[in-house]
Amino acid sequence: MPDFSILETSIPVAPLNLIVMDSAKELGDSVDHYISEFRHNLYKMPENDPAFHGYVKDSYKINYCLNRFGSGEAKAAINESVRGNDVYILTDICNYSITYKMYDYINHKSPDDHYQDIKRVIGALTGKAKRINVIMPFLYEGRQHKRNGMESLDAAQMFKELYDMGISNFITFDAHDPRISNSKPLGGFDNFLASYQFMKALLSHIDDLIVDKDHLTVISPDEGALDRAVYFANVIGADTGMFYKRRDYAHVVNGSNPIVAHEFLGSDISGRDVIIIDDMISSGSSMIDTAKQLKNMGAKRVFICTTFGLFTNGMDKFDEGYEKKYFDAVITTNLTYMDPEITTRPYLFIADMGKFLATIIDFLNHDATLASVNMPTDKIREIVSKYNSGCKTPDELFD
């Protein structure tokens, strides 16, 4: 549990402002609500102290606009004073539902368009705000994090570019490879995981789990996700296993080498519940294949936990996989946009990240340590212990 008393003994860096890009409106509204709730009810701050001027407000969002010309070019304008303030820009570069008009055509914004909008807002803030912080849950170009031959290094270039523009902190979630921060080694880079929120969602919706080494295994679908799977398994006291993706390196399909087979490395999972944990679901083919193999190996139930449910090829494969009982539930966060129709699936549960993100912003605004926020090990173990001892309702588990 984060130690909120730290905030009562520290002075905020500057008055807090939140710029919520259109791409992250729902999440931004939730974050804004929680920050206001924290400061109205949780803390006891000194009154009439200039250092806390404007500290308690009903909303921290500020008004801005992105105007676009008929040619498709655009500009950002900030419509309120931010001079001397600590500004946080929240964006979702994967929100494909946002549109704009160019030459009378309707275009859907790509990650490139959202990234350009962030730079426009930073350009409008530079020289006015005391500190500019970017919150980009899904790391722009994070999948292009290393170079094979004559390729671009897009993620590292993005990170360097934003710091050259004057940002102070960069916050992301479950980065494909956080080593992109090496491109600007003196810049602030924080990478958070959704481990606690995954466990909270699982225990809220599955009431007959047995969380121990004899009944539960946490699986990494590939070698890249092994670290997060090992951490999650160790914290909840479960067993661990992984799959190795055997690829066809002679061909490239949709930007990557196609997977020939998934080879499992781990102990017998017959009769066990299995949690597959990964950073994202893109098309979902690999995840469905992994879940199918686990069921064929005798897994009792398969639960899929992923930070970013992109579902780029739609839900047909998942609907079919659920019907064929390849998996039993999918848990993903609300850090990226999902078509509302997707969320109606009976097997899909959302791990809400609004309160967690609000806590991160609040601590950063005080320049307070994020150690207890970043690694909620004790908090996860506490709810697992309560669950195993018979507490099942949300009020009992998450008081």
Structural class: alpha/beta
Characterize the overall form.
globular
Give me the CATH architecture of the largest domain, please.
3-Layer(aba) Sandwich
Strand order of the largest sheet: 12-11-10-13-14-15-16
Mean pLDDT: 88
Number of domains: 2
List the helices and strands in order. Answer: HEHEEEEEHEHEEHEHEEEHEHEEHHHH
Task: Give the termini separation.
Answer: 11 Å
Our count of helices gives 12
What are the main properties of this structure?
alpha/beta, Rossmann fold, about 400 residues, seven-stranded mixed β-sheet, five-stranded parallel β-sheet
Describe the structure.
- The protein is α/β, with parallel strands linked by helices.
- 31% of the residues lie in helices and 23% in strands.
- The protein has helices at 5-8, 25-42, 111-125, 154-164, 195-205, 226-236, 285-296, 316-323, 354-365, 371-374, 377-388, 394-397, and strands at residues 16-20, 64-68, 74-78, 86-90, 99-102, 105-108, 131-135, 169-173, 188-192, 216-220, 239-247, 259-265, 273-281, 301-309, 329-333, 348-351.
- Strands 12-11-10-13-14-15-16 form a seven-stranded mixed β-sheet, with helices on both faces.
- Helix 8 (316-323) links the parallel strand 14 (301-309) and strand 15 (329-333).
